[in-house]
Specification:
heterodimer; A: 256 residues; alpha/beta; 5-stranded parallel beta sheet; 3-stranded parallel beta sheet; 8 helices; B: 69 residues; Ubiquitin-like (UB roll); 1 helix; globular
């Protein structure tokens, strides 16, 4: 069964996307990513350490030939910074992919959706493949689609919170509202959360803290891999309707 | 003798040998392939590194990818 996710002509083999932040070291990062089976990894754009040049580079561990590198604009609190980081990411990298974040508040890390919309529009015109990290608002998802986003990335819950999919009904409405791929970004705390996102019909799930923050990140990476596959299969298989009362599974015929 | 003061990644940097951006990256032992460089907030394309001449007080930002979500 061919079930490849395609965004703007780019084929994504895995529907689990993983972040590379918060790991103990690059070796653990590499092992967790391998265990997750993900073929797309997010990265941040930061100053090179010019004082300690011996420090290793993430890309020595995550081969860009093997993985699709998805740079983010994490830490950007206004449109101008988000554009600046996006353009730098494109220059440092090899693709037009950008996971666009315009953050509105330090405590919640919720998106500043007004800034996000503006930045999406500008970057899409510049030829970026814009994947905006948004809230779980169907109206905003539609506005982002109209502004030229290549996919929408609604949060399940605040970044790093592990609270799971707080509003599955909104995610469901987003799926019905936009034609774009919908990738749940942020909030997944454990395997069942990822499965729920996929069962709802989401195209992919992006997880960082849920894996990197687990006691055993490598084992959790593998759990998330199976969770996403299970959720996807269940979604395509079509679940039974929920009913209040029982229906016997064994026949009456042949009973004594 | 050649001498120039730059601000590199927010820090004062004095050089007596880097006339071009490529020279500077070499002096800092930074491979040009995996970085992006801004000079005075304008991105310099990789192809122009060897011809881009630095000048006194240029603000140079050199970034790369780090772990992130």
């Amino acid at each position: 069964m061919n079930d490849t996710l395609i965004i703007k002509g780019i084929e994504f083999k895995s529907r689990l996307w993983v972040g590379t932040g918060k790991y103990k070291d690059f070796d653990e990062t590499k092992k967790a990513i391998e265990a997750s089976g993900a073929d797309v990894v997010t990265v941040a754009v930061r100053r090179v350490n010019i004082i300690d040049r011996k420090s290793e580079n993430l890309l020595d561990y995550i081969d860009p030939k093997k993985y699709k590198i998805l740079p983010n604009t994490a830490g950007c609190y206004n449109v101008e910074d988000a554009l600046r980081y996006s353009r730098l990411a494109r220059e440092a990298g090899i693709s037009d992919l950008i996971k666009l974040e315009v953050i509105g508040d330090e405590k919640t890390l919720f998106p500043d959706t007004i800034g996000l919309l503006k930045a999406t529009e500008i970057l899409a015109k510049e030829g970026f493949i814009v994947l905006p990290y948004s809230n779980d608002d169907p109206i905003m998802a539609k506005r982002l689609e109209d502004a030229g986003a290549a996919a929408v990335m609604p949060l399940g819950a605040p970044i790093g919170s592990g609270l799971g999919i707080r509003n599955p009904y909104n995610i469901k409405i987003i799926l019905e509202t936009v034609k774009l791929p919908v990738i749940v970004d942020a909030g997944v705390g454990t395997a069942s959360d990822a499965t729920i996102a996929m069962e709802l019909g989401c195209d992919a799930v992006l997880i960082n803290t849920g894996i990197a923050g687990a006691k055993d990140p490598i084992a959790m990476a593998e759990a998330m891999k199976h969770a996403v596959i299970a959720g996807r299969l269940a979604c395509k298989a079509g679940r039974i309707p929920r009913k209040l009362y029982a229906t016997a599974s064994s026949p009456f015929d042949g009973m004594l | 003798m050649f001498f120039m003061r730059l601000i590199v990644n927010g820090e004062l940097f004095e050089t007596s040998k880097s006339e071009t951006l490529l020279d500077l990256l070499e002096e800092l032992r930074i491979g040009p392939e995996r970085v992006a460089v801004e000079i005075n907030i304008t991105i310099v394309k990789k192809a122009a590194y060897s011809t881009f001449r630095l000048k006194e007080d240029d603000r140079v930002e050199i970034v790369n990818f780090v772990g992130g979500g």
